[in-house]
Design goal:
Strand content: 5-15%
CATH class of the largest domain: Alpha Beta
Radius of gyration: 30 Å
Shape: elongated
Number of strands: 22
Length: 794
């Protein structure tokens, strides 16, 4: 569409003048944060000692963001709207901090940055300064749920916040550099999943200021009709606000924003009275302004405003060069701060009146402090879904199939506060029972064949899209605004969201440790399934359990890893995770049928401890063991048990202790992780001097990393995935990576001193078994029946 028509200017002259003044106040504060440590209102001639010794920050996108925020304030007050703002441009904090400060919320949260001259000086000093606040919209920023430290997730976070929030409008400013990322490009399609009956609305604002750090941006340099076609093709109704004259731009933006809000409210009103008859074409805005708008136009003979030079610090050396100092002073004085702030340093009253009040302020909106709105899930009794286990390791059951039935009823009881997310794999991951509570969200076109197992519905609550980035962003936005969810994905491809997980974990750690005003939010729950040891059909590309290594690098205050060995343990772990707050919980559980080991009472006790001896699989009762066989993970547990079975048959007097780990961080010392074991408790399980054969689901080095400070670490011998695989049978894959029963038994014989001589023939037989089973797999394409149907003999 063309620029919004201006048949009548929506802003009266005084309103236009005051809104422009408010915008200039925002811009002044944004620039002041970058440069000033003293003399915040320029009531003295600017001197070198007033300038920060190290200039950090990003100016380029701030004026455009502040421009939008000022206009959102007008709309909020005029229409009594419930709005949060998401800042997509990188390093966009000066604008949002300035806005929060002018609204008064920042000083409420941080009294040392009061609405006074000294408070303003403190705001300036602490920006991008050691011990202060960063240049992203970090957790310290009131009103933020999106840091933007990594570009690409503003829209997915925005839509996650809007789901099941019918009264909320999320204004998401997308930077044009950000718009070049893959995650952002995919997240435009989120509009196909937004239901105007029970969801809120997202108003994307694509901010085209032309440049990234040092290069033009793609969307700013394609023809107007091509950009319009792109946004239309994404399913939006684009409106363009373009120019650099402030008065004209204010009128354009006011008219355009009014039109967009009218359309949003019409879409919602019609849907809520008549139902959803077709997928809405939601409005969006393309805002094209100069980069560094209102900043210095030229420095040293080079263009600044409207060029890449405005991206960060437009004038680099005012503390050491007199002319640069003069330019900074002229730039800051161009905003006329003496007309914007009173004698005490507070925003003048006529401009304060432009801000919404209370929780209608964007920076004080409770949805951006989601724990304040959070309600605990109404969870069914997970014990009611238990698998009956009469004898350990005698029956095969799909753990995720059992979990699916539990999640189905979690959803039924929480139809406005719980969603399940997954990349087109809910059925593949054996969570099909969830569809009995709700189908998949789908507002795009449908065909007759979809009805045959498609499970699609306008009112669905199962979120499926083949973009792990978008799904993770939705879930993060959903939980940060106080709701609950679970994201299930293939183990090999959870790496797609490695960096998103990193960002979210850092957000939680900062909020949990340092910001008491932020209320605890529901945990982000990741179910990692379709695991490495059952990827015999997909091959080497699908065999990668290394996400656990990424998780263990994050703060012990916020990350948890669980490897439940069977379905009953998975139910206990899932219930715990859905109740938790301020964590990222990673649950590793396969979808294929696996042996069941513990009845429900035993599973609850085992999961509560997180680690324990399985007496029924041990032979060291009331004695010191000769060897400890330990394991973590479903297949790792089965192969370890099979090794014990073999060793018991060969050496009837061998004293074996069997230890299973559910909570991986129990391996760490209690001085380094809240779930860690004390040295005494660890030694009581693993001994201080006996060999430990540890069979692990993931890479062996991770167990060594977690246990390297333990007394008996030199005797811990870990078997794990060794980056070997192809189209293998399950046992073949285990053998070539050294986690199979035969290899474990050989290792035990080698490590127990008294077996080294008497076990030679046993080792020879075990080596023959490996060769025989590999040959059988390559001849028949399947494992032998005694392997496929192995049971614990006891």
């Amino acid at each position: 569409m063309a620029d919004a028509p201006l048949a009548q200017a929506p802003l009266q002259s005084e309103q236009l003048r005051n809104m422009d003044r408010y915008w200039r106040a925002c811009n002044y504060l944004s620039a002041g944060m970058i440069y000033l440590r003293e003399n915040p209102l320029l009531r003295k001639p600017l001197a070198a000692e007033h300038i920060k010794r190290r200039l950090l920050g990003h100016w380029g996108s701030d004026p455009g963001q502040s421009f939008l925020l000022v206009h959102l304030n007008r709309a909020i007050k005029q229409r009594d709207l419930n709005v949060i703002f998401i800042s997509g441009p990188g390093h966009g904090a000066p604008a949002t901090l300035a806005h929060s400060y002018l609204e008064g919320r920042y000083s409420e949260v941080y009294p040392d940055r009061s609405e006074t001259e000294e408070g303003m000086a403190q705001l300036f000093r602490l920006f991008s300064f050691p011990g202060g606040v960063g240049s992203h919209c970090t957790p310290e920023t009131p009103g933020s749920i999106h840091e933007g430290g990594e570009l690409g997730y503003s829209l997915s976070h925005a839509y996650g916040a809007a789901f099941d929030n019918p009264d909320l409008i999320v204004a998401a400013m997308v930077g044009d550099g950000e718009a070049e990322t893959g995650p952002l490009a995919t997240s435009w399609h989120s509009n196909k999943f937004l239901n105007p009956v029970h969801d809120g609305a997202v108003l994307p604002v694509l901010h085209l200021n032309g440049y990234k750090i040092a290069n033009p941006t793609i969307l700013a340099r394609i023809p107007h009709d091509e950009l319009e076609a792109l946004m239309t093709g994404y399913g939006h109704k684009p409106y363009f606000v373009e120019g650099d004259d402030p008065d004209t731009m204010h009128q354009k933006m006011a008219a355009t924003l009014d039109r967009c809000l009218d359309e949003i409210q019409t879409i919602q009103r019609n849907a809520r009275t008549q139902g959803v008859r077709q997928r809405p074409r939601w409005p969006m805005i393309v805002l094209r302004t100069p980069k560094g708008w209102t900043g210095p136009r030229e420095v040293g003979g080079h263009k600044v405003e409207g060029s890449w030079r405005a991206h960060q610090v437009p004038i680099a050396d005012p503390a050491t060069h007199r002319e640069s100092l003069r330019l900074v002073e002229a730039w800051l004085k161009s905003y006329q701060p003496e007309t914007l702030f009173d004698a005490s340093g507070r925003l003048v009253e006529e401009l304060r009146a432009l801000s919404p009040q209370g929780t209608r302020r964007i920076s004080a909106n409770p949805h951006a402090n989601g724990g304040a709105l959070c309600k605990a899930l109404d969870l069914p009794k997970f014990q009611d879904y238990a698998v009956a286990v009469k004898k350990p390791a005698s029956e095969y059951v799909s753990p995720t199939d059992v979990l699916g039935k539990f999640l189905r009823d979690v959803m039924r009881r929480n139809m406005t506060t719980f969603r399940v997310f997954g990349p087109d794999e809910t059925a593949s991951n054996k969570l099909t029972a969830i569809y009995e509570a709700s189908k998949k969200t789908w507002l795009a076109e449908t065909e007759e064949s979809d009805a045959d197992g498609g499970e699609l519905s306008i009112d669905g609550r199962v979120m499926e899209m083949l973009s792990e980035h978008t799904l993770e962003g939705w879930l993060e936005g959903y939980t940060l605004t106080g709701r609950h969810g679970l994201f299930a994905t293939y183990e090999a491809f959870v790496h797609v969201i490695d960096s998103m997980f990193n960002q979210h974990a850092k957000w939680l750690e900062k909020a949990k440790r340092e910001l008491r005003w932020r209320q605890p939010v529901p945990a982000l729950n990741l179910l990692i399934t379709s695991l490495v040891w059952r990827q015999d059909h997909n091959g080497f590309t699908h065999q990668d359990p290394g996400f656990l290594d990424v998780v263990t690098n994050k703060s012990p205050d916020v990350v948890r890893i669980y490897l439940p060995p069977d379905a009953n343990c998975l139910l206990s772990v899932a219930d715990h995770c859905l109740r938790s707050r301020d964590y990222v919980n990673v649950i590793v559980a396969d979808k294929q049928p696996h042996l069941q080991y513990l009845d429900m009472n035993a599973a609850i006790a085992h999961c509560t401890k997180g680690i324990g001896i399985w007496d029924w699989a041990s032979t060291d009762q009331h004695a010191e063991p000769d060897v400890v066989i330990a394991c973590a993970g479903d297949i790792a547990t089965m192969e370890a048990l099979a090794a014990v079975d073999i060793l018991k048959g060969m050496f009837d007097d061998l004293k074996i202790r069997f230890v299973n780990v559910v909570d991986l961080f129990r391996l760490m010392p209690d001085t380094e992780h809240p779930h860690g074991l004390s040295a005494r408790d660890f030694d009581s399980l693993f001994t201080t001097n006996k060999p430990v054969i540890f069979n692990f689901h993931s890479y062996a080095t991770l167990v060594h990393k977690l246990t390297y400070k333990r007394t008996n670490h030199e005797n811990i011998h870990v078997h794990g995935y060794a980056e070997k695989g192809n189209i293998n049978t399950p046992l073949e894959l285990a053998i070539i990576n050294g986690i199979d029963r035969f290899t474990l038994a050989i290792d035990a014989i080698d490590r127990v001193p008294r077996l080294r001589g008497m076990g030679d023939h046993a080792k020879e037989w075990l080596r023959d078994q490996k060769i025989d089973h590999l040959n059988y797999a390559h001849t028949e394409g399947i494992d032998r029946e005694e392997i496929r149907d192995w049971h614990w003999q006891g």
